[in-house]
Amino acid sequence: MPRPPAATSRYWKLQRQLARFNTFLFHKTGGKVGGSYFGGAPVLLLHHVGRRSGQARISPLIYLDDSPRLVIVASKGGVDAHPAWFHNLMAMAQTEVELPGGGRRRVRPRVAEGAERARLWERAVGIYRPYATYATYTEREIPVIVLEPVP
């Protein structure tokens, strides 16, 4: 299995630092600033609870608006493992996301499969090209998560 080059590791470390800064800006300005980074892609804040720690967590993630649903991609895990936020999210029946502008929405996660996944993956790569590059470093299929609105 190919390993990401050191430059790629530095890239993702920088992305994590930008994510923390983005979350700070998003909250400080009520969602007016910090709603777009990662090369201009739209970002939401995902609220989840750590499965082991039980602590509340917030992850800024690129999203697609597939109205009335939202779509996110579980791309930032290790080379062979899905990221912790993905496991935390999938362990929850429902959670909340914050959208740019400060709006909040209750959602229920599910993993897209088959033709739906292929269609959404192409759209995700269209707004954030590094997803396709990252996919070349892993043999795992990177999950595409659909966040269904909860009435």
Automatic annotation (TrEMBL):
One of its GO terms (molecular function) is oxidoreductase activity. It catalyses: oxidized coenzyme F420-(gamma-L-Glu)(n) + a quinol + H(+) = reduced coenzyme F420-(gamma-L-Glu)(n) + a quinone. It holds the Pfam family F420H2_quin_red. GO terms for cellular component: plasma membrane. InterPro entries: F420H2_quin_Rdtase, Split_barrel_FMN-bd. Gene3D superfamilies: Electron Transport, Fmn-binding Protein, Chain A (2.30.110.10). NCBIfam families: hi_GC_TIGR00026. Belongs to the F420H(2)-dependent quinone reductase family. This is Deazaflavin-dependent oxidoreductase (Nitroreductase family). It comes from Pseudosporangium ferrugineum.
